[in-house]
Amino acid sequence: MTTPKLLAARAGVAERAVESRHLRRVWGLPGTLLGAVGWPVDWPGRVHLRFGYWWQAHLLDCVLDAQLRAPSDARLTTIRRLVRGIRVRNVLGWTNDFYDDIAWLGLALQRAARAGVEKPGAVDAIARRLRAGWTDHAGGGIWWKRNDDFKNVPANGPAAIFFARLAGAGGEYGDLGRARSIVDWVEDHLLDEETGLFWDGLHVHPDGSVREVEKNLYTYGQGVVLGACVELGSAEYADRAARIITAVDKNLATDGVLRGHGGGDGGLFGGILMRYLALAALELDRPEAAKAADLVFRSADALWANRTTVVGGPLFGPEWTVRAVRPTKDEPERDLSVQLGGWMALEAAALLERNGCTPPQS
User: Fold this and answer.
1) What's the chain's Rg over C-alpha atoms?
2) Which of 20, 26, 85, 258 has its CA 20 to 30 A from that of 202?
3) How far apart are CA 115 and CA 271, in angstroms?
4) How far apart are CA 248 and CA 258, in angstroms?
5) Cα torsion at 72, 83, 267, 166 (round to 10°)?
6) 244 belongs to a structural domain
7) What residues make up the domain containing 39?
């Protein structure tokens, strides 16, 4: 199916394609970069009229993946400029009203610090906001957005990973307990017993009782709970991680290839799950680790096989089993999110490759 180092080369080609088509300064300011949210880039894209806060967090994460794959001073400069670009474009600080957005950026900034680009004030601001986002409504959990009635997995999952990593880096007393409490709350309130997967979230009445459960099953929701369970590491959480991998393979993949969720925000969903499947494949002490690796390799192979080629390099589609098309108007291929999802998937496969994992034979 693939040969050694080929997956790293594919990830590198995806990196160059995204950067050449999407990266722009913020309002012409030196020392800043952001990803234009669409390509071909129109005038609102050139001035970053639409920001896409959490898309930028994943762009930063992808560049950090690339830096681990092939460290360079030039890429470190890109990381610094992206961090500054996010801060400049966000105008009022590091945070916004969406707890999921800031959790994603918090994770990227934690990784940036390990690469040598430290923003301790930003991480601290995000940590304070996330700690304050937990309430007893519906038995616990962090809100999706301030002053809203929704608590969901895509906010709680990355927050749990963030707190677990913060605890390991000497964070505030209780952060590890917060991570465990978040994962346990998700397990208790949003697990679909039939599939072993997690529903999207729930709406809460003012008195704290549950009004409605949103029973959509999204790939990235499974990815972040999987990532949190792997991060927590105990036997109990490892068993949960193994169950999630099995459930994903059975319900969210076809012949080992993850399903897509279209363009827009959905373009990131599969790539996020791929990130945490790869980490599970490397860290999880369970037989299901091999299945996680298989899902990563097969999905990345399908993504690559169905790419199309445009200026700058490969262009990926939102459904990895379907040939990508060159965007002429509003096709999802124009979205930065879709291209980042593809790049993330290839970096996940390259991570396994350089750690000695062998792709399945076709």
Assistant:
1) 19
2) 258
3) 21
4) 8
5) 90
6) yes
7) 6-354
Task: Write the CA distances from 153 to 57, 98, 129, 171, 303, integer angstroms.
Answer: 18, 13, 17, 23, 26
Identify whether 281 is part of a domain: yes
Count: domains in the chain: 1
Structure tokens at 234: 């105990």
The number of beta carbons lying within 10 Å of the beta carbon of residue 30 is 8
Task: State the CATH number of the domain containing residue 148.
Answer: 1.50.10.20
Predicted local confidence at residue 171, as pLDDT: 84
Query: Is 38 inside any structural domain?
Result: yes
Q: Quick one: what percent of the chain has pLDDT higher than 90?
A: 94
Confidence at residue 4, expressed as pLDDT on a 0 to 100 scale: 54
Query: Residue 305 CB: number of other CB atoms within 10 A?
Result: 10
For residue 19, tell me if it sits in a domain.
Answer: yes
Residue identified by tokens 């009229």 is 49
What end-to-end distance do the CA atoms of the chain give, in Å? 6
Residue whose C-alpha is closest to residue 214's, from 195, 229, 199, 230: 199
Overall pTM surpassing 0.90 (yes/no): yes
How would you write 186-231 as a 3-class SS string? HHHHHEECCCCEECCEEEECCCCCEEEEECCCCHHHHHHHHHHHHH
